[in-house]
Design brief:
Length: about 550
């Protein structure tokens, strides 16, 4: 080999080696992050199959989120990248690029906009923050009112009113007071974010700015000045899960951490935010739900989908509501209760003080396909020798409502003489009809809808009390009130409503909060055997 060629080869190896050494050394030393973007810890990974989480976060929350992010990564080993900016720019980024798993604007108005564009699925409330003025420590220019902002010797800066939440809120208040145009004219400049406004005051480019109070946690040399005109200027801070996320369970895992009362919310409170109600932190929380048996076909698929999306467990107990109430009174308290009727929610108002009407279900007379006994009304159930099944009055709402219906018909004594079986659930009556053990049964339309291939349903006419109303409520001492509320939102989805209606329920549109009074004639509960003859004493 010639010496020139050997020299060229050696030089090439030297250049490659030097390049590799410089690249490796630069990575080891770490590179500065781009402006407004957090730097993930390269020593930590993510759970198997998960990519790094991306949170789009309003600059007003940067200080608190950075602390939470670091705690989360250290505790869970999962990595999160955060991009900070004004709320509107981040929303536009989410809409255009569809890149981002979570969106945390400075005010809920941006989330409402995002929801309207179908960019956001779940919304999780976190905290509130008031707006006011920021000045140098000691307030050297004595700025205490809106009038002071218009003084010639006062330099005012604001965040962009078209993009930043703080100025959108302030403008809304000032417009109602007829003050916006004069304040806008007095403003020396508009900045991209609220933190830039605080920075301008800090470096004496401005004398005063309009900010959220928690922003000043990062600016100890500045002072927050509340003014009476901005007393109503409070922004609700909530976290949205992007509809486009490819890893919803991972996104919701971090969201639950941020909104946990013993994790992220503690940090929010320490940094001057007013926190709301939060869940206790758990890596994989288990939600405990009690529901009347008749509701199972209407809600089971929604619960399964919820578990998969959230990455949580939902333990559900289906049974007659009388039995469920007895368990609760004995101290077995679930996180949420979905009752078959208001009567059985009214017995546990000390546990579930507030409930929401969801659906209705009416009683019908079920008979074998073709109606061989020619039954057309309640009176026909009094025919001699007919074997009739009903719900157990003390074990389920269906039995309680059946007795009310029998009394209202004026035929209770005659009807009960033909009752051969009382059960805690309608499914048991369906099974006995199918095996020929009964000639007819009084149960819910939803029970009949699930067995339409084998049974016919006959309407009970003229008796309003034959309709049951199903309420949902979260226990006041639940460890997971937010998680339970999100499950309820899943149950209230359009897809879920279709399932309810297909199962024979009537959806209660515009369901409202109910303060359910304790009734003076509530059904007593019973945990005796699940079948009983008409002659049994209860």
């Amino acid at each position: 080999m010639s010496k020139p060629l050997l020299f060229m080869i050696c030089s090439l190896f030297l250049v490659v080696g030097l390049t590799f050494w410089l690249f490796h050394n630069e990575r080891s030393a770490g590179r500065p992050t781009a402006p407004n973007q957090s730097q993930p810890n390269p020593t930590e990974g993510t759970k198997s199959g998960e990519s790094e989480m991306i949170l789009l976060c309003a600059a007003s929350n940067q200080s608190v989120i950075e602390q939470i992010r670091k705690q989360y990564e250290e505790e869970t080993g999962r990595r999160v990248s955060v991009q900070y900016g004004n709320s509107q720019s981040l929303l536009a980024q989410l809409e255009i690029s569809k890149r981002g798993d979570l969106y945390l604007p400075a005010d809920n108005s941006f989330l409402e906009n995002a929801k309207g564009k179908k960019l956001i699925e779940e919304v999780i409330p976190i905290a509130t923050m008031p707006i006011g003025l920021v000045v140098k420590k000691g307030n050297p220019k004595g700025i205490t009112s809106l009038a002071d902002l218009k003084r010639d010797d006062v330099r005012l800066v604001q965040a962009d009113p078209e993009a930043a939440a703080v100025t959108k809120v302030a403008r809304s208040i000032l417009e109602k007071l007829g003050q916006w145009e004069s304040i806008k004219e007095a403003t020396r400049g508009f900045r991209s974010t609220v933190t830039e406004v605080a920075t301008d005051v800090q470096i004496s480019v401005a004398d005063v700015g309009i900010v959220y109070s928690p922003v000043l946690v990062s600016f100890p040399e500045l002072e927050f000045v509340p003014i009476v005109e901005f007393e109503s200027g409070v922004s609700q801070v909530s976290l949205g899960v992007a509809s486009s996320t490819k890893q919803p369970a991972a996104a919701l895992h971090f969201a639950r951490y941020i909104a946990a009362s013993d994790r992220g919310l503690k940090t929010y409170q320490q940094q001057g935010f007013t926190i709301g109600e939060g869940d206790q932190w758990s890596d994989v929380p288990e939600l405990n739900i009690y529901a009347g048996s008749m509701l199972r076909p209407a809600i089971e698929d929604s619960i399964i989908a919820f578990e998969a999306r959230e990455g949580v467990k939902v333990s559900r107990t289906y049974n007659g509501c009388g039995i469920l109430v007895a368990q609760m009174k004995a101290g077995q308290i679930p996180d949420a209760y979905f009752a078959c009727d208001l009567e059985f929610m009214s017995q546990v108002t000390d546990i579930f003080p507030e409930a929401t009407e969801v659906s209705q279900n009416e009683l019908v007379i079920m008979v074998p396909k073709g109606n061989p006994k020619n039954i057309a009304s309640l009176r026909d159930l009094t025919k001699p020798g007919l074997r009739v099944g009903i719900g157990h009055e003390k074990q389920c709402a269906m039995g309680w409502i059946t007795q009310n219906t029998f009394r209202e018909s004026g035929l209770q004594q005659e009807l009960m003489s033909n009752v051969a079986v009382q059960t805690p659930t309608g499914d048991m009556l369906v099974n006995q009809l199918r095996t020929g053990a009964l000639d007819a049964a009084v149960a819910y339309l939803s029970n009949a809808a699930g067995a339409a291939e084998f049974l016919d349903a006959i309407e009970i006419q003229g008796i309003p009390c034959s309709t049951a109303t199903q309420p949902w409520s979260v226990a006041k001492n639940s460890k997971y009130p937010l998680l339970a509320d999100r499950l309820f939102q899943r149950i209230c989805s359009a897809e879920s409503q279709d399932v309810f209606e297909a199962e024979g329920f009537q959806w209660q549109l515009g369901a409202k909060k109910l303060n359910i009074p304790k009734t003076s004639a509530t059904p007593s509960t019973d945990t005796s055997p699940t079948t009983a003859t008409a002659g049994d004493k209860e």
